[in-house]
Design a protein that fits this description.
The chain is an alpha/beta fold and 160 residues long. 16% of the residues lie in helices and 35% in strands. The radius of gyration is 15 Å and the shape is globular. The two termini are 15 Å apart.
């Protein structure tokens, strides 16, 4: 249900997130965006859409992430794992495969984020497990062994 709420919010109203950690601005607003599906194991046949797009993996048991938001103009990729658990695995190979399938070139041009979105009540104690396939994202600017520190944790702020 939490994952369904995430997609409904991103499609209709946009999202408000509270980011964990010492930050000047802990709140972040994500604008509404188009939702499209894709298969992370096979390349997109067409180029990326011009506008900001939230891709949802076709398979319901896709590992690693629930959504990947791509903004071609801003050269920004945000992988999102939505979870109500208090800890989550961090399997980097899934992100790497998706970047290849989306046609995102390696190098310093694109800004890559991984965000675990959880409940407000889990924000402070949420744990990211040690990264599997450490180094898989090195060509995208993520230092081997430092991936957990670079990943972000946020709580979805929901107003009913």
């Amino acid at each position: 249900l939490f994952e369904m709420l995430f997609f409904e919010e991103v499609k209709t109203k946009g999202l408000s997130l509270t980011l964990r950690g010492e930050r000047k601005e802990p709140l972040e607003r994500w604008e509404v965006c188009l939702i499209d599906s894709f298969n992370p194991r096979s390349p997109l046949l067409n180029s990326l859409p011009e506008g900001r797009t939230c891709f949802r993996p076709e398979g319901i048991f896709q590992g690693g992430f629930d959504a990947v938001i791509v903004d071609r103009q801003a050269q920004k990729v945000e992988f999102v794992q939505v979870t109500t658990a208090k800890k989550h695995t961090f399997k980097l190979m899934y992100f790497f495969e998706a970047l290849i399938a989306l046609g995102i070139p390696a190098g310093n041009g694109w800004n890559l984020r991984v965000i675990f979105v959880t409940l407000q009540t889990h924000l402070k104690q949420f744990q990211i497990e040690p990264a599997e396939n450490s180094g898989a994202l090195e060509t995208y600017g993520w230092k081997k062994g430092k991936e957990r520190k670079k990943a972000e944790v946020a709580a979805l702020d929901v107003t009913v």
